[in-house]
UniProtKB/TrEMBL annotation:
It comes from Desulfomarina profundi. It comes from the Bacteria. Residues 114-129 have a biased composition (Basic and acidic residues). Residues 109-134 are annotated as: Disordered. This is Uncharacterized protein.
Amino acid sequence: MLPVILILLTSLPARAHKVRIFAWEEGGIIKTEAKFSGGKPARNSTVTVTSQKENEEILKGKTDDRGVFSFPIPKKARDNQLNLKITINSGDGHKNSWLLNAEDYLPGVSSTPRKTEKMTKAPQRKPDQEQQLPNEVLLRKIISSELDRQLGPIKRSLALQQEKPTSLQDILGESAISLA
């Protein structure tokens, strides 16, 4: 009878304590939010930021009472256009990570190389017209910042929808690994 009960329990989904993390850039600050299944914030959990390629630790911190940890874009990450692996560890073997690609937090960085376009002579403008037009770099920065601000909640919602239910088998597997 016991084996039958164990088989039934391992096939049922469990939403125990799976932790998830979401990260985005807003105004030169990388913000992270960590929660357990069901929406409870992962308080006082360790957040480690590493470079994806070399797996080198860049910084470490703790989440606040809302499960939030924020930090300015690290100089090393900005200078080297690093993809960042942001890992949450809430203890008791509850870990998860989020990959924040350089193009997601650095303006002007693209994952695909751009073709160089031939420069064409710009049409002649009167001096008073030039003062009214924003330069291209400034315009791109404004648009990028506004898009990041508006798309942050949408990205967070998509990340929540991608969550797979944790099964009892996952929990027992993690427990067995942590005991070994």
